[in-house]
């Protein structure tokens, strides 16, 4: 039996069609696109085509608005740093408490450098309060950076509305759309979004390529200075295979988006219903009525997400947990904390993120395995007694976060 991959918000399989398309650019078509000979010209032409494909997927007005970078994190950093450098008199940033570390870590660093960072809070379903946002907008703010969709819960933010509000206040608006591109139809030319980040490896392109969309006329300062690549907006010889692969990925995303939004969400919904029906004391986190079609984040109360993942891995199922285990601690994720998910549930969150490569048979296999795993772990849990959760489990152990 094949292993089941349901961790597509972490990274995706490169589409075989993309692999075929980029292979010649490792061998016979290896030129540097800046070179003035046929080797360079052929690759330059392929990059132009890729830029057009990205433009079309994003609904951008012009292909010159597409700047290729190395990843989503670089695009996020470039956007935020550019806004600060271009407007040195503005010392405030607005973002949210649930951004990816690509934005939050940079903002925390900038706070140590004297900038004021306003982090908008979310409610129990991970939703923002636009009144709180409106109060923060002023001519002291250099940039607003708000993700289009959350990587852990899939919750979608009203970025088009927020960009309009920023524009009316004369503030630059950036969105980290790393999880949204290819899943949500976009027509950026009709929005007030000034800058947008995307990452190739989240939409079946290779790793090591990203895009910063820069609306025409947006004040800009490059992060990487050097050669004249990307019209002087991002120095460094282009990752030609990555960019060409991303172009094909954008074409495929256009083609599959409707499929993803119907069949993938059907699989996701069946997974949700199948698990919740069999596992007591479990619930979906985030905004179930407004989330990415592929994402399901379930909190299994009274057990650890990592333990669930390990046992799922043993039976060939790959997903991810919300805990920041990479930091060496088992703290619940900042997203779960921000939503106020109780301690005994925030530790037990598991994110299933599907793609067009998943099948209903796989979904049924996961539904068959997960309840047994959860029951097995609950037997070992200090919060769990002979007949279910112990009395006052919240008070049984001191919470590690306030
Ligand atoms: N932003 C979001 C919302 C993400 O989910 C990720 C990756 O998980 C990133 C940014 C960073 O992207 P990259 O890995 O391409 O740097």
Number of helices: 12
The chain-level structural class is alpha/beta
Distance between the termini: 44 Å
Indicate the radius of gyration in whole angstroms.
22 Å
Give the averaged pLDDT, no decimals: 95
Largest sheet: 7 strands, mixed
Share of residues in helices? 25-40%
What overall form do the CA principal axes indicate?
globular
Strand order of the largest sheet: 2-8-7-6-5-3-4
Bound molecules: pyridoxal-5'-phosphate
- Name the helix and strand elements from N-terminus to C-terminus, one letter apiece: EHHEHEHEHEHEEEHEEHEEHHEHEEH
Commentary on this structure:
With 402 residues, the protein is of the alpha/beta class. Helices cover 39% and strands 14% of the residues. The strands form 4 sheets. It has a 7-stranded mixed beta sheet with strand order 2-8-7-6-5-3-4, sandwiched between helices. It has a 4-stranded antiparallel beta sheet with strand order 9-10-13-12, with helices on one face. Strand 5, helix 6 (159-168) and strand 6 (172-176) form a beta-alpha-beta unit. Helix 7 (240-278) packs across helix 11 and helix 8 (305-314) crosses helix 11. The chain is globular and about 75 Å long. The two termini are 44 Å apart. The structure holds pyridoxal-5'-phosphate (PLP). Residues 71-73, 100, 102, 147, 151, 176, 178-179, 199, 210 line the site of pyridoxal-5'-phosphate.
